[in-house]
Structures are given as structure tokens and as C-alpha cells.
Amino acid sequence: MSKDFYTVKKQVEVEMEERRSIFICNIKRVLNEEEAMNFINEIKVKYKDATHNVYAYITNNGISMRYSDDGEPQGTAGPPVLEVLKRENLNNVAVVVTRYFGGILLGAGGLVRAYGASCKQGVDAAGKVKESEAVVFNIVCDYDKYGKVSNYLSKRNIVIRNTEFTEVVTLEIMAFNDEFQKIRQDLIEMFNGNDIIKVKEEGVTCFVDEEGKIMEVPQ
Description:
InterPro entries: EFG_III/V, Impact, Impact_N, Impact_N_sf, Impact_YigZ-like, Ribosomal_Su5_D2-typ_SF, UPF0029_Impact_C, UPF0029_Impact_CS. One of its GO terms (biological process) is regulation of translational initiation. The chain folds into two domains: 5-126, 2-Layer Sandwich (Ribosomal Protein S5, domain 2), CATH 3.30.230; 130-215, Alpha-Beta Plaits (2-Layer Sandwich). Helix content is 32%, strand content 39%. It has five helices and eleven strands. The protein has helices at residues 33-46, 78-87, 107-126, 143-153, 177-190; strands at 5-8, 12-18, 21-29, 52-59, 64-68, 93-100, 128-141, 158-165, 169-176, 197-208, 214-215. The strands form two sheets. Strands 1, 7, 8, 9, 10 and 11 form a six-stranded antiparallel β-sheet that branches. Strands 2-3-6-4-5 form a five-stranded antiparallel β-sheet, with helices on both faces. Helix 2 (78-87) packs across helix 3. The two termini are 22 Å apart.
């Protein structure tokens, strides 16, 4: 990826009060625009009696983004929520900030600050994890080679997604691209030029923990 992106670790709902108005931020990791809109519509139904349900989302490595002021003065609600997501380098995330009007007008500046603060509170509560891209591949080996392969893989930065024991042993593995290239090279040398790897999918979204280790899902 040309830029480091983050997403949220978990779905959360947080509430704050600003001059008697109640702001409720719901934020969730999504995979695409369709999931984002499904989540947004769920929250709109949940809080259908609210004064406003403002939303924003970013997907597709920061390329696809959308927001709605949902009846607030133009530019005072959706844009500040979206700006928080952009400033935090978030991707594949959707947020809805629900407002119950408390009887005191906040003014344009006050709305911008309140919606932005509510979104930032949601991001902080959800936590962030770095996104990256990975390769998913199979290693297919005979049983007499499995011990050697398993020992080697235990020292690599990978996720073993599945292991099947049939006539042969098949391991499905997720790894960063540079790690995959190193594994393929090492195994070819280890088994005298035989390539026992078959690529299944490239450009798969994965996650990176605080120590730089690959994860399949946020933890």
C-alpha cells in the first residue's frame, strides 16, 4: 500500500453532552460501501426518534468516502465527522453521530466542534489497528517433510489459517508480501528446487499489531 491506513479494532457506542444536546457516536469497521450503508441504516432505525443522524464513512484505501449533514446546517456536521476519520488515517470505517437536540442552539462553530469531538471520542474508544496487505497461499508437503516445514514456519511472521491432513499435508497461510517471498525462496532451497507453494490470493487485507506481527483480524 502506498500509505499506511488504520481501522477500528471494535464496534463501540459512546455518548457525550454539549449544552443539553446529547451526541451518540456509533462506529464500526466495515469492508466496503455496502456494509457501511447497512450499518448507517441500522443506526438510523435504532435512533429514528433522534433530531439528526449524521454519518460519514471511508473505504477502498481512502478513495471512497461519503458524508451527510442529515438536516444540520450545511457543512457543520458530516464534514467535521469525515475530517476526524481522514485525520486519523482511517479506512474501512463507518460512523454515525446521533443528536438529540437539547433546546439550546450551538451555532455553526459549536456544531462543528461537537460533531468532531463526538467522532473523536468514538475513535478513541474503539481503538485503532494498522491495515496492510497480505498474500494467502498453500504449502503442500509430504508427511516426512511436515516437521521441518512446521519448525521453519514457527519462526516466521505469518498466520496459519488452516491445516489439512489427507494424503499430504496442506497448510493455508497468510503473510506479508515480503515475508511470502522469503518463505518461497527458503523452501525452494530447503527442498532442492521444488516449489511446494501455491498462491491463492494477493492483496488481502490484514492487520498489524503493536509489535509489527501480522493478524487476520483486529485483537
